[in-house]
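Fold this: Endonuclease III
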Amino acid sequence: MAKKETKAEKRARVNRVLEALDREYGTEYICYLNHETPWQLLIAVILSAQCTDARVNMVTADLFQKYDSPGKFAIADLKELEQDIHSLGFYHMKAKNIISCCTDLMKKYGGEVPKTMEELTSLAGVGRKTANVILGNIYFEPSIVVDTHVKRISKKLGFAKSDDPEKIEYELMEILPRDHWILWNIQIITLGRSICVARNPRCRDCFLKELCPSAVTGEKEERKNRT
């Protein structure tokens, strides 16, 4: 049985993981959803539920020309908006939430995207994940976005134990320095899309393999899949 990692050892490993991620991917803030304004990012994130960023970007290229303000979305015809976003899946709920969200933006916030977690999560279709995307990417408030990549890889690294995204957020807040809260999501998404892919992680090629408790199991699975 492997020796349990002490708090000091874990803290040291966290720092080494962050240093490796910074070397490999840099420290530039990147948002994979195309947008020019805060309200565009808010709508893009709502649309991205159960959908790839690339697909959302294809749809919003025309969508944001047709509806060029939150006010236009607020008065949109539900059925027409559903057709506009049909290819993204869950289009009925997304269209309904976007109209409701933008109605509140206009009535309560003068068309501006609010700046607090409480105000953001009061909007239709906006949970903690969406709110943290806005806080981090628009207002540069330290925040941790727990998407599927962050959830899966944080658990592989032994940095989180829960299956609940909000609990994982708080677990990561305890061990990651605030200056890496936003970067964690950006860097882990890149890792999850390129090396630590969900169905077939390439542990043997991963620059974090010496720091990841799951790497040994992953390499065994790779060898098994090759035979």
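The mean pLDDT is 93. The two ends are 28 Å apart (CA to CA).
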